[in-house]
Amino acid sequence: MVNHTADAATWQGDAMDKAVSGKAARHAQAQTVSYRTPDERVALGRLIRDSVPRTSQAGWTVPAGRRNPVDLLVESNVGRLPNLIPIRFGRMSASPFAFYRGAAALMAADLATTPTSGLRVQACGDAHLMNFGGFATPERNVIFDINDLDETLPAPFEWDLKRLAASVVIAAQHLELPYSDIGRIVTDLVRHYRERMHDYASMRALDVWYDRIDLQKYQDRTGDPAIVEAARKRIAQRIEVERRKTVPDHLYPKLVTEEGGRPRIKDEPPLIFHPTEDIAPGLQSGYAQAIAAYRDSLPEHVRVLFDRFHFFDLAAKVVGVGSVGTLCAVGLFMASDNDPLFLQVKEARTSVLEPYAGKSLHGNHGQRVIAGQRIMQSASDVFLGWTRGQNGRDFYIRQLRDMKMSVIIEALDTGMLRQYGRVCAHALARAHARSGDAPMIAGYMGSGQTFDDAITEFATDYSSQNRRDYREFIQAIREGRIEAIKDD
Fold this sequence. Notes:
Strand content: 5-15%
Radius of gyration: 22 Å
Strand order of the largest sheet: 8-9-10-11-13-12
Distance between the termini: 43 Å
Number of strands: 13
Shape: globular
Low-confidence stretches: 1-23
């Protein structure tokens, strides 16, 4: 078991070692061993500005010796299923926004070259717009949160914020929104993150931990009332659609066929297929060893529920953009003839942040992802667990679909993108406040626009870097240096 409380203290101590010097360091390091009031922690956050000014977060300049982006992407394919790599690159080639979604490793390397506050949180590691969304809690409420944490690791808080802000610029450019609107949308997102962090800095610790964004009750009193109301109506309609999609009567016939009276997941190559023994060792035993290890990772009360289900089938399933090529699958379990459970099995690899933020404390990367989810999300899937395959690959497991909802970027206009960015900023601030020191982060950011403007400038500049990298990527495809296959 990992002591996350101790981890948090270590993160903040490390932050002070890196970011503060002299008198500020002596005061800040004492924070890890003695009680400090919220006001004192805000003051400590302000002291960090002496060595890492907020204006130093602005802009993006290509560092000397920056690696070729195509080379880094090719390196990130090591260990992926070779036949799926062209599909990954094909999906990334669709647009600069699609490229950005699949290029978390590039940005992690770039962020590591920028000035950092040293204020560490449990970071998402890939906090772009499409990695936020709605899903059902065990109590069947629908909440909004970060919903993809494959890259999660302790890291400086601003790395997540910069990636989210840049994704808004790139999405707005993809939508061809007016240039004058883009800056306002991004600045508003950063401001909303900062103001929410100030709110969390003044809240009781348990109130921060219990806070959640309920999509059916969400209110944004500072947003445009007409847009908020329109968003509320869209959300209500989407929730009803997803409720229908989640029930077994919808999902089971879509994914399963009956062969000889035994349920079997339908093959739809190359996106859904039954793996061979060499790809997924354990096929002959019905993956008994991996399932047993997964069961051991579940809380005792969930094991009672899981034991009602029996394994019937498993098929590889290609998902996302950045995850394409990793070994992801869907497992079919049955409690009775009309009582299925679909579990999503996702390979968990080394976080893209690890070369720059430090090695994971967990020996299994599936456990790393699950620990990060439980820290950052206000509620998590009841079937979250992890295991290791006979081939040495780490996996984490959750329900395949539990009213999971993602935004359709192409359906957004300026007002809706602004509103969506705000709710993403809220969710990110809430997640960071759960693991990080909210008063110190708030103190560093301050109450004016200096920090907002700096991150906006970075996001705008980095969107240009993303376009340059995308053009180089497309050129590599055209020259035949890498293969890309579009699967739509």
